[in-house]
Write a structure and sequence with these properties.
- Helix content is 33%, strand content 17%.
- The chain is an alpha/beta fold.
- An eight-stranded parallel beta barrel has the order 7-8-9-10-11-12-13-14, surrounded by seven helices. A four-stranded antiparallel sheet has the order 2-3-1-4, covered by helices on one side.
- It is elongated and about 65 Å long.
- Bound molecules: phosphoenolpyruvate and manganese (II) ion.
- Manganese (II) ion is lined by residues 102, 272, 298, 308-309.
Amino acid sequence: MLLRLKRALTERDLESILLLCKDLGYVTRFLDEARELLELCGEGAPDHCARLTDLTGVAEILRPGAPSELALRSSGSQEDRVVSVHEARFGAGNISLIAGPCAVEDEARLLEIARGVQAAGATLLRGGAFKPRTSPYSFQGLGQRGLDLLAQVRAATGLGVVTEIMDVRQVAAVERVADMFQVGARNMANYPLLKELGTTRTPVLLKRGQGATIKEFLGAAEYILAGGNEALVLCERGVRGFDRVTRHLLDVGAVAHLKMATHLPIVVDPSHAAGRADLVRPLSRAGIAAGADGLMIEVHTCPGEVHSDGAQAVDLNTLEHIASDTVALAQMDGRRVVGTSQVLDNDGIISPTITPGT
Ligand code: PEP
Ligand code: MN
């Protein structure tokens, strides 16, 4: 069972709550730094719910056994959560752009792409060092060498880094470099990994599995939140459809639904949904229009030399247009795109001026 406590309780209030929980037979632990989420383990006394509800410091008792309590808005009133990642901000009207290659390939290319995406308005650089590939014979990523290159480019550009983690054994190495862990679609249900990431305080981008229902997606999110890591951003990247014209189906309905159902930010990845560079810009527009708090775009500067997902990589010019579209759409509903000037020039291109997030 979980108790959500009222904000800013005094030590005395906290002590009396902990004491009562102990008297009722529970072992307790706080799940967050603000000490507002208290987990109660054990059977407890039969009249526990009534006694706990009566306590002045308890805001609510979260239903035992519900799969996604922490991710959901309680009675529709909970404010949007803002997740800060380096200069990027996601949620509560803040939109941020993540862009970069599918995989880290070599130093010169990574730096070239990083500088380009930064100039276009991205605040976070993406790039996988560990790549989950359908075939074991395809390029698997550079591994530790890829992480080292990300660290170098991070230092050279000041961009934050988002990179994929596939295994609990990679946590320490990836965390040394990443400003945000990416959990890929194939690992959305890797529960030991999700649990481990819940114990860290590094932000997580959790991608929806290719065949995952919203309930399963939020259940996966819950694993991370339940460990006390609240810096979680969801990512819709398309689900499996029946038509092969696009690689996956971008579920914009899920984006709109999740914005209502949860207080967590959600990012759209149009690249893996489309599987085709020519559809990335229109799907980006659709994602932002549906309420997404950010985009994650695969970009490459040399289409003939891409090591993975080449067909869906857009060039820097297209990324600039996507950024401009995003600014224009954000202006329509009073949101802001972090890292960009809000003013479009005469050609409809945004100024690349970096404005620090708030
Ligand atoms: C990726 O971001 O490169 C990736 C492998 O994505 P997904 O997990 O959505 O397939
Ligand atoms: Mn990819």
